[in-house]
Structures are given as C-alpha cells and as structure tokens.
Known about the structure:
Elements lengths: L6 E5 L4 H9 L4 E8 L2 E9 L15 E2 L5 H13 L22 H5 L20 H9 L18 H13 L3 H13 L3 E2 L14 E2 L4 H6 L5 H7 L7 H4 L2 H5 L8 E2 L1 H12 L3 E2 L2 E2 L3 H7 L4 E5 L4 E5 L4 E2 L5 E4 L5 E5 L4 E7 L1 E2 L3 H11 L6
Parallel strand pairs: 6-16
Antiparallel strand pairs: 1-3, 2-3, 2-15, 4-7, 5-7, 8-9, 10-11, 11-12, 12-13, 13-14, 14-15
Amino acid sequence: MSDDLWINGGVAPGYEPAREAFAQHRSGGSALCVLRHGETVVDLREGWRDSGRTRMWDPRTLVNVYSVGKPVIATAVLLLIDRGLVDLDDPVSRHWPEFRTPATVRQVLTHTAGLPFFPVPRDASAWSDWELLCGDLAGAEPEWPPGTVAAEHALTYGHLLGEIVRRVTGRAPGAFVADEIARPWGLDFGFGLHAADLDRCAELEFDAPDRPAQMLGDAASVHARAVANPQGARDLAVVNGDLWRTAVVPAVNLHTTAEAVARFYAGLLAGGELDGHRLLSGTLVDEATSAQFIGFDHFIGQETTWGLGVQLENDGTWGMGGLGGSAGWADPARGHAIAYVTRQLGGFERVTALDAAIASVEPLI
Length: 365
C-alpha cells in the first residue's frame, strides 16, 4: 500500500461512509474518532506524524489543535462554578484583584470581555512566562465596553480563564486540567507537556505555501491583530518546538489525540458524566451549551452564537474548531461526539465532508 493510502483503525457496521470520507480527505497525518452514546463507532488514523514521513501516526500521537482546546479551559472554570467557588456573573476582579477591565466571568467565557489582544508587544519567549502575560492582561484597557461586542479571544482566552483558575484554587491551570478533567475522564490531552510526551508530538505544517497569508488576512483587522502578539503562534519553528509544547497556552496549545477530544465531548453530551465520573452538573452543561451571545463576531467575521466556551451551530451541533482544520463537536440529535485532528494546517473542507458523512449514517434519536 502506498504512503498516501495508509489508513489504520476501523469503523462499526453502518459507519463505512465515515471511512470513505476520511480516505478521500486524508491530509498525510490525521485521526478521526466518533463515539455514539459513549461507545466508539469510528477510530481511524492515516499518514505520518513528521514531515519527513518516517514515523507513522499511531493511537498515542499527540497534535496541537489550537482553539479546539478552548472548551477545555472553559470547563475548568465551569467546575469552579459548579463547586460554588465562582459565579458566572462575578466580576473577574473579585478573584483577580489586579484585573482592571470591568468584565464578568460570563463575558470572558463568551468572548465579549473586550480583550482580544495582548496589549504589550512580546516575542515568542513570552509564551513560557505565564505571570508576564497575565500581568499584561490585568493592566489592559478593553477595546470595547465588556458585553457589547463579541470578538473571539483567540490567544488571550486561556490566560484570562486560566488565571481565574489559578487565583481561586492556587493551582496552575495546566495542572488543574490534568488533575480535574483529564485524569477522571481518562483523556490523553493537556496543556504544557512533560518531557516524556514530547516525542509523541506530530509536526505541524501548512497545506500550501500561501496558506499562512490566507489565514492572516488584512493586517489591520481584528483577526490579524489578535493572533500576531506574542509572536510565534503560527510560526512552525515555534509551534513545533519544545518551548511551545511545554508552555501552558490554554487558548491554543492543547496537545491531544482524537480519542481524547471525542471522549471529552461524550462526557459533556452525557450531561457532565463519563464512565461513572461526574465532573459537571447536567444543569450547568445545559447552560454552557445554550446561546449566551448571538451576533456578529469581529474576529471570526460573521454571525456567531457563543455558549460558555463552545460555538453553537444552526443544525443543533456545538463545539469548537481550531486553526488549520482540527475540530471537536457534539451532535446531540444523533448522540455523536466527534473529533478530527490533523497536523496539516488548511481549511475546514475536511471537517465539513466528515461531518456530512457521519450525519448520514444514523437516523435521529
């Protein structure tokens, strides 16, 4: 079998369309996992985890999925809300006294806090300095009055929410996610990898030479400004390096398997419980996956519906995509929890095709 056709894994009877779509839209290094009512029905991998095509993608391969990780750090804050330690409508400053912007926890969760940019120019080394970047955000002036404008907080989201976690619990956000989310639910993902896991990482690469410019767009736009500082979040030399992989950047550097993301959504879809381990109340999951903001998002550039950490679609699905085409989402009507992860940074055509194939398999519940 040729390198381009190498696919491993399997599908449950009836899910052959998912395998066919996966084969047609292979990227040279990706994985797809689908759970239905918590049971695995699709588990597929293809290609390689390095640009030299020397190491095949295997079930333990980790890949940086960018904004697919945003719901994970949002869930960390939701845990604190469920435990009565934080209220959705608390001012952030109640837990983070140095924080000047009069935004609430809910507004941070819904990308309406008015802080889509890190305010102080920083080079790539700043990604490893949590306190430096949080200090920058604490002293920032919002671009708009909080609650009035949505603009996905592309790079700032994880530090805003992660610092709430740190201030309330006294624990670093990466460690909190590992102990309170990943371990109870058996999820092979995290922010800030240990040295032992670095060799499992896939190398990111762009699918075309002009793709970085296409992704950036107008340099003066909210989108471009939001991803430009600190430097390096789209620089392959940075994101394929140990500094990035060991740093905690919860907005954009979750390193994960497809199975872990799918299991995360299966837990949310089941009302906050997975394999007998309850993390969240069903009531809070329902609130998190209901519309909190409906309107134009100035980062995304189109009408968007935000829940508390997830994006809601008109077809009833909810989840989050990441730069380059990785995505995790739930389809409540069919009981599907889905994750597609790739090392080849491109558009979302692959996700669209996979979603259509998976949705065609089973009748509505």
